[in-house]
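Pasting as-is:
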Amino acid sequence: MAGITNVQRKTAPKPLERRRHQRVKVTLIGRYMLENRQEFPCQTVDMSPGGVALFAPVAGRIGERVIAYLDQIGRVEGRIARHFENGFALQMNLPLLKREKIANQLTWLANRSALGLPEDRRHERIAPRHNRSTLRLADGSEHLAKLIDISMSGAAIKVDIAPPVGSAVVIGQTAARVVRVFEGGVAVEFSRMFTPEEFNESMRL
């Protein structure tokens, strides 16, 4: 039994991971789904590759599994570890590659904030050749839209409606969330970032 205990002690990575992954104060808009499949808007307080604290209108119960979609991060899931005023902390159990990706994204976000860089400077923006599209809302309604410009992570769209910031939409076949509303249109962040190989003037959303 002592041998098993020693092996468990040697292989337990959690304390090291907590020490290695510092929480970054970052404000990202998103949505989350509880086990009963109810969805609510949320906003991050801080985040690390192992956990995230969310401002959230409905907290759920300790240990409950939650799936969240966060702007610039994408899909994450985990279990509620603790409650705090107006929200809860989620302990995430993600594959190594996903944790590494989130660590890189958080490092970039922290540096962007420290340097005061505008949100869209991180990726080149281009005017697509195929700029006619549709914007589909969560209620299933579709609206004609024109792509003003796109980057690997988002797009500016001319459309005659103004869905609220944080709402889920689909542009053509591409899932996204509204991050900004301006006169005559909206800016969105894609749920999945396009790769450099996919990103070109001929791409279709």
